Amino acid sequence: MSSIDAPNPYQTQTRPQSQEAVFPLVNYLNKTGGWKSWLLTADHKRIAVLYLITTTLSFLIGGLAAALVRLELLTPQGDLLSADGYNKAFSAHGIVMVFMFLVPAVPAVLGNFLVPLMLGAKDLAFPKINLLSWYLYMIGSALCIYAIIAGGVDTGWTFYTPYSTTTNTNVISAAVGVFIIGFSSIFTGFNFIITVHKMRAPGLTWFRLPLFIWSIYATSLIMILGTPVIGITVLMVAVERLIHLGVFDPAFGGDPLLFQHLFWFYSHPAVYIMILPGFGIISELIPCFARRNIFGYSFIAMSSLAIAMVGFFVWGHHLFVSGQSPYAGVVFSALSFVIGIPTAIKVFNWTATLYKGSISFETPMLFALFFIGLFLVGGMTGLFLAAVGLDVHVHDTYFVVAHFHYVMVGGMMLAYMGGVHFWFPKISGRMYPEFLGRISAITIFIGFNVTFFPQFVMGYMGMPRQYHEYVSEYQVYHVLSTAGASVLGLGFMMPIVYLTYAWFFGPVAGPNPYRATGLEWQTSSPPVTENFLEIPVVSVGPYEYSQFKEDDEVVHSR
Amino acid sequence: MNPQVPSDFEIFPVQASTVAADVDLLYISMVALTAFLCIVIPGVIVYFSVKYRRRPGVPRPPRMGTSLVLELTWTIIPFFIVIGMFFWGSHVFFLQTTQDPNALEILTTGKQWMWKFQHKNGRREIQDLHLPVNTPIRLKMASEDVLHSVFIPAFRLKQDVLPGRFSYLNFTPNRVGVYHLFCNQYCGTSHSQMVGKVVVMELADYQKWLGGFTGDPPEKVGEALFTSLACNTCHTGDTGSRGPLLNGLYGHKVQLQGGNVVTADDNYLRESILNSQAKVVFGYQPIMPSFNGVVSQDQVNALIAYIKTLPAGQDTGSAKNTAAADANGGVVMSPEDQASTTALNNASITSSEPSGDVRITSDSQALQTAPNSSDIQTPQDNTNVTSSSVMQNQDADTTAGEAASPQPTGLDTTTTTGEQQGVL
Prior knowledge:
Distance between the termini of chain A: 23 Å
Oligomer: heterodimer
Radius of gyration of chain A: 23 Å
Low-confidence stretches of chain A: 1-17
Helix content of chain A: 55-70%
Mean pLDDT of chain A: 90
Strand order of the largest sheet of chain B: 3-2-1-5-8
């Protein structure tokens, strides 16, 4: 808790060597008790914890569906699941992972927890709307889960018409669920935007904002501009099913391509909703563990905004072979290549930040470095898909599956894991087990590559996605992939177990276990409900690691 | 026959179309670039990580400045690299989508969960597709229900198949063999069963394969339908008839109610049959009933094939919609995609084929051609030039002049291009 007269609020207080960390007696976790105090809370930190629990449950459900899919694909014949069962399994995997996990995870968990703390604010601008957005998320998710349990949905997460308007599965409840989750996104987004604009601490100018805030801000822009489109689109699917309004189905006079345009107008920017916050996390982790101010701060910040903007003009690359005009295809190809530039800028700047740093390899840093490697592959293969002539061959094959898993899992999920480990001491007040953390990071990295790299090869060989049965020549790649998936699953289960244990029994972290800059480290861990006893005043940029003295040893008491 | 597939742990599918090598070259180049970056960038990261690892007692590094030069360098260089990739990718795309006006058109229908193909002479097949090698092919594709997609990995090509409109896949197979055909757009329960074989054969084998068929070609079926569905009662061409005459319509511009002008292509004809009120020709009332649900996709194909064969300017009423268009907006009925040699070849054929209906192909060979009013052939009639000519010439070759027409026997495409004026 820094005071107004401190010369540099980012700087930790001078502390005696080997000061023993003490768990704060009063904090946001124990201030009030009982389930009501959680379910009716307006505290952004508690809402973040609610999101952490519920999105983790979603991740487990989506992971279970993925396990079914991978097991079925072990052999070319359909032996574990029926054809419909398989279709419902991959649809459940997609719907749960995209709408219930990837989109809300970083913004709603880490964003909720960190945005006010990083801004030196006491809460978000609209705490009750923040709680409302969690309830909307829960209602929408409940509808989606209901759709999956009560008979299932077999449209895939993309709900392509006219299949989705004619199949006799639970499309309506899933569509309404996605519609409601969309409102949760919109509310979260506009809450963040207003908070960033209006509630920054004194002296915290735009270019002193942590890059995590910049990326959350860009993400929020996409959320409020894009989500309404997907909302109304899936609602129209539901309406067309109910009253046969001819919007998408040619049988009623609709246009089957219209859905794809509307769907991807949101869903491609949604990819950036998922990955931009990941970029933000990496931009926090690398300076901290390299003890270096980030290289090219303003280029990284502006590239987030550029991605958010250009991201709205590339949706047509999902329609290269859908029947849109070839000339439209070429234009969308050019725009899709352009969006590779701001992404490349980030990668180069992160790498440059390491130069002449003082680098240590705690679990979050391992995740961050693995992220750069995997995201590099994910991003480069994105260029393959932007090249129209190549996309014509690999479109909707396992090449695409591998590409977006490299971005979503190798990119976003690794960044999220890094972020969760990094801020776990702040959220829970306790340290995670470092050794297990490193083992988990390495397990995930290896398991991930074994799972998804063979899919690039298989995809170029022509293996279409969403196939229940397949011709036997692809089996070797599927076996590799399933083997890797079991390692990957183990890697993800480890943190769930040891972080749960550490939440209650881990060593006490102290306010700033990593000696990190950033306002969130200037308050106790876990913070008090009001975040800061005194509002901090900011006079320098966010990554002034050079102003630190020698590292103190932190002793984590039990 | 089983598809020719790599037996072991291979990473490239067989190249069996003219664009396959181009796609592979682009792919290999991009893989090389990716591999290079995946060695350099992680290599630098590992190097920094080792060299600048934290050591006890070493003070924290000083503040690092920014470098505009460096930022611009790694902005501008990737920019030029991706622009290069963009042009290369688009170039390959244009190779993939280039339409050969002489392509052999094969009607393709996707439905849950099978592929149906119909060849020029009317022969149908399900799931499997037989093709002649080194012949430009155009699949004219439509779906009867939901989205499907034709994907032939050995050809490095795919195209979605939509309900409610035609889409096309153009290619030239250049390697005899059997290849996979996948449905690549998720279409429900048995999506993964919607798999067939593409059998690429020598031209002679293909003709032999076709030859066994004795049924009617699509345009014949369409002609019968045109009567049985009573289309002919309105589309008479008489003064005051309720529907516009369809002769010579295909490929030309039509003026609609409200002033818009459209080209009467496959999709326009299809829409006018199935959703007849959508685009009403100028000067006519929207009274045509919708045939949505009345005619199947096959029947739509047959009707369009028949309408395509109707020659222009045949009788008195033929110019009615033309006149309407000309009078209301001065739309010029320009011929499309005319080879300059067409008229010459046309003339030579008409001189040798005095009668109206001509089957150019030899007797048992079932490459029937449409009725041909040769004496009024105009360039407009040749908008749908097909590669049947190639087959015809082959026929002429193999059957030693049994064919009615004295065609040159060379297989050279430029020679054959203009030869099939009998085929509409």
